[in-house]
Amino acid sequence: MGIFNETLLEFFDRKQHLAGIAVTVLGLLLIYLGLSKRLELVDNNLEIAANVTVFAVGALQSFVSLMVLLAAVSTIFLFTKLSRKGQVEYYLSKPITRSSFFFSKLFSIYLIYAIALTALSLMVGIELIGLGVITPEQFGYVLGVNLISFGIWMSVVMFVGMLTKSVTYCFASLAAVWVGQLVLKGREGWNAGEQFGRYLLDTIYYILPNTTEMGQMAQLLATGEAVSNWLPIMTSIVLLLVLIFTSKSRFQRLDF
Amino acid sequence: MVTVEAYGITKVFSVKRHKKAIVALDAVDLAVPQGEVYGLLGDNGAGKSTLFKTFLGLVKPDSGEIFINGHIPSSAFSRSNVGYLPENPKFPGYLTARQLLLLTGNLYDMNDRDLRERIDGLLKMVGLHHWPTLKIKKFSKGLTQKVGLAQALISDPDLLILDEPFNGLDDKDKPELMKVIDQVRSEAKTILISSPFRSDVESLADRIGIMKKGRIVQTIEINVLREEEKCMFEIEAGMGGKVVDIPAEIGIKLRVSTTSMVVELVDDEKINYVIDQIRKMDISIKSIKPLKTKLEQSLYRNIKSTVEPESEVTV
User: Fold this and answer.
1) Which of A27, B173, B231, B304 is 20 to 30 A from B255, comparing alpha carbons?
2) Single pTM value for the model
C-alpha cells in the first residue's frame, strides 16, 4: 500500500468512477443517435462520409473535453485538502520529504484520473471505431491532446487550492479561466486601440491556459488538417510547469 | 543522550482577518533525555500542539533551533524514528485499520514481512483485530485513537509524540488506551505526551512541563511532587468540637470541621502520630485518605508565581 493505492481507494470510495460511467453511457447514446441518421446517408458518398468523420471527431472531442472538465472539478477537493490541516499532518509526520509527498500525490492523482479518462473515452472511441467513422489514430490524437489539457486544468486547480485553501475559489478560477479563454479567443475582432493594447490582450491570452484552442488543435490533427499555430499548447505546457512548481514551493512553506 | 532538544523556539501566527498576531510559542527551551516520559500540561491554546508540530517539521518556527535525535526537523530522517499521534487525528477514512498500518509502514520504508507481523501484533495490542473490514470513517473516537496509537508505533520508534491522546475518550476507552501507553512506556521509550488535564499524564510522566501562553513556565519532577503529596491527608472522623493538637514538628492542620480534618505532615510516617492522638481522645476514625490535590495546587502555584504578580497567588 503506497500513496498511489491509497489515492486509488479514495477515488473509488468517492464513487467518482460511477459518475464517470453514467456520463459516458449518456454520451454513447447521444453520439449514436447523432450518427445513426448521418450514417444512413453515407452510402458510398465520400463527401458525406468525410462530414460524418468530422462530426464524429467533433463529438468525441466534445465528450472527452467535458470529461476532462469534470475530472478537473473532481480533483478540487483533493488539492484543497492537501493545503489544509488534517489528513496531510498524518503523511508529513512520517519520514517523507514534503517535495516527495507532493509529487507522489500529484502524479498519483493525475495518473488515476488519466487512466479513468482513457478508459471512459475508450468506450466512446470503440463505438466510433466500430462504426467505422474514425480510426484508432484519430482517437489517439483527441485523447492525447485532452490528457495534456487535463494536466493543465489540474494544475490550475492545484495552484488555486494551494494558494487559497478554498473549494469555492477553485470552482471560480476554473470558470474564470474557461470564460476568459473563450472571450479572449475573439480578441482579433476587438478594437483594442493602440498596439500596446493588442500586445496586452495577446499576452493575457497566451498566459491563460488555452484548452479550447487545444481541443480544436486535436480535431485538426485527427482530421488530417495542418495545425498552423502551436503556440497555445506550448504556452499552456509552460504554464502547467510554472503552476506545479509554484504550488510545490507554496506547499513547502505551509504550516499544518 | 538527549532525544529532543529545543532552544528558544518562537512562533507567531498572523491572523490576517483580524489584523493581529498570535504568539503561539515564546522562546521555548526543552531538553528531553532518552527514555524519559515528558508530560506537557496546559490549557487549550497554550501552545502544546504547536510545540509538538515544530518537532515534526509540520510547523516552522520563526526562530530557535530544534534537534530530534540530533537531526533538524526539516530533514525527513529526523522523523524516521518518531511516532506521532496528533490531536483529533484525521486519517484517510476510506482505509481499514490494516490498510492504514500498511500505508504507514510503507512510508517508514519497512519491509513487507516485518510489517505484516508488526501489524498483526499491534492490532491485537490495541484491540482492533475484531474490526478487520471496518473503514476508519466508521470508527468511534476511541477506535480512532487506538488506530492512531497503532500507526504511531508501527516502526517501533524510540520517540513517541502523543498530542492529547485521551481527548474525547469515554471512561471505557481511556483506561484501555492508558494501559497500552503504559506498556509502551515500560519499553524505555522517550514519550512526549500532552493534555489539559493532570490526571491524563501524571501516572505516565517522569517530568511535567506547564505551558501557558506559549511558554513553559515551570518544569516539575513528578517524583518530588509525589513525595510531597504523600504528606497530605484527609481524616474523616467524628471530631465534634474536640481539638486535636498537632505539634509543629509533626505538621499543621489545614482545615478542620466537625466531621473531618486535613493535615499536612512533615513526612507521611507522621500520620501514625496523628491517628494515636485522635484515638487518645476517643474519637472514632471513619477513613484516612492521602490527598492528591497538592500537585494541582503546586502546578497552579507555579503558573501563578511565574507569570503573574505574587499578590494574585491563590493556593
Assistant:
1) B304
2) 0.80
